[in-house]
Amino acid sequence: MDSELASIISSIKGEIALTMIKQIEPCRTMFAAYAKERVSGSGDDSGYEPEEDYWDSHYQSRTLYGPWGGTRGVGDEKSYEITVDARNLTMTIESTVTGNPRYANSDGWDSGNITDIIETGRGYHWENSRIYQQPVARPWMNDAGDDFAENLLMPMIDLAMDNLLGGQTNA
What are phi and psi of 84, to 5 degrees? Predict the structure, then answer.
């Protein structure tokens, strides 16, 4: 009986891990979409617009549209490293956005990962930034993670369990 239970548990864990792995690309898409809405200001009622647009109307924001000088913005799906630990059934999502090299010669430009700076609105060192002068928090990671888990990952795990166990798991 113990080996049968262990086999069932192993099958369930395997199915959940496989489902998580299958959701990596939709996860990237969801995080990039949240970033486009929350960071670029397109879904923000505060009236905030990407600061690049203020200074150069011909420049499309790297934050919204992707790579500039070899780096990628938060709205680019390639800015998210996602790993699944099948053994522990965990998924880790990391934003790898770094400071825009366009401003490398500016006072206080940040070259490293700037996700925390964008999310909190604190830690800006770039003195020519409109955001530095009046900090603007633009969080997206937690909300995107909650939405992904609630509306995409968990329903897919429920479906996988239905398929594995031959019936509905959620009554």
Answer: -120, 125
How buried is 48 (Cβ within 10 angstroms: 0-12 exposed, 13-18 middle, 19+ buried)?
Answer: middle
Is 131 exposed, middle or buried (CB count within 10 Å of its CB: 0-12, 13-18, 19+)? Answer: middle
One-letter amino acid at 61 equals S
**What sign does the dihedral 109-112-118-120 (CA atoms) show?**
negative
How high is the mean pLDDT in each 10-residue block of the chain (171 residues)? Answer: 87 92 94 84 45 37 45 82 94 89 76 86 73 76 93 92 75 51
- pTM of the full structure: 0.72
45 touches 22 (CB < 8 A): no
Sign, Cα dihedral of 154, 155, 160, 164: positive
